[in-house]
Specification:
- It is globular, with a radius of gyration of 18 Å.
- The protein has a 7-stranded parallel beta sheet with strand order 3-2-1-4-5-6-7, with helices on both faces.
- It is α/β, with parallel strands linked by helices.
- Strand 5, helix 6 and strand 6 form a beta-alpha-beta unit.
- Pfam families: adh_short (PF00106).
């Protein structure tokens, strides 16, 4: 058995694991010899990844079709996982968009759903699966965040806030769980060629990370640090931004959103 399997096996659970960055995590875990539980809402993507992981890597794959924002999510996951021993938890799912805080087509219910997926989801799965890891004194947890979680970002306001939660939770648990030999890592993703990349077609994506590159960085960082700002270009930009006064930085983040995703015009608040 490899060192990776001994530390993080025998099962990995990847929330949002059938597409994009999540799929890259699922494939990485399977490639290391772990069996994989894949949570996703897309039944077609789940069927595909189950077939690919079992055939390509000769591991077990348990696909679980689920709404990560539902009130019954944790109970349904516990029922599906049953007695399987989860040694690696990756929460990759996130409900994201860009636009004004008050939007014309969504309201408070949508923002509460965002909390359910981006905040409650990682909390309840971490709370459930971390306890046995601590008892065994081995395991790993990765909470996927975003560069938007590193600073309050205009036009990503509530998404930015939820992703800041994921960073703070993972960083704190990195310290709390370290004496139990359980590794925790927050990953602040930059611009990545994931399933969301269809919205980047008007941008120069030459500097974007692939999901595989991001996952490789995360797996090299887990156990070594509490936070990974993923991607060399993203890290360099983050280091520069730390030297900029808050007022100027927030203005820059607003301009970036406006120029790249809102046709260069500040959107009106739908009030």
């Amino acid at each position: 058995m490899s060192e990776f399997c001994s530390r993080y096996g025998p099962w990995a659970l990847i929330a949002g694991g059938a597409q994009g960055i999540g799929e890259a995590y699922s494939r990485y875990a399977a490639g290391q010899g772990l069996n994989v539980i894949v949570l996703d809402f897309d039944a077609t993507a789940l069927a595909r990844i189950e077939s690919e992981l079992t055939n390509e890597f000769d591991v077990e794959c348990l696909p679980v079709e689920i709404d990560l924002g539902s009130a019954s999510m944790l109970a349904n996951v516990i029922s599906a996982v049953a007695e399987r021993e989860v040694g690696l938890l990756v929460y990759n799912a996130g409900l994201a968009d860009v636009g004004p805080f008050f939007k014309t087509d969504t309201g408070l219910d949508f923002e509460l759903q965002r909390i359910a997926v981006n905040v409650t989801g990682p909390l309840v799965l971490t709370h459930h699966f971390a306890a046995p890891m601590l008892a065994r004194k081995r395991g790993g947890i990765i909470l996927m965040s975003s560069g938007a979680g590193l600073k309050g970002a205009p036009y990503y306001a509530h998404y930015s806030a939820t992703k800041a939660y994921d960073i703070a939770l993972a960083e704190a648990l990195w310290g709390e769980f370290k004496p139990y030999q359980v590794d925790v890592l927050a990953v602040a993703a930059g611009m990545t060629l994931s399933t969301a990349a269809k919205g980047y077609q008007h941008l120069d994506t030459s500097g974007f990370q692939t999901p595989q590159e991001l996952v490789k960085e995360a797996m090299e960082a887990i156990g070594k640090q509490p936070l990974l700002v993923a991607g060399q270009q993203h890290r360099a930009g983050h280091e520069k931004m730390k030297k900029v006064p808050d007022e100027q930085l927030i203005g820059y983040l607003a301009k970036h959103a406006i120029d790249n995703f809102m046709d260069g015009k500040p959107p009106k608040q739908a009030i």
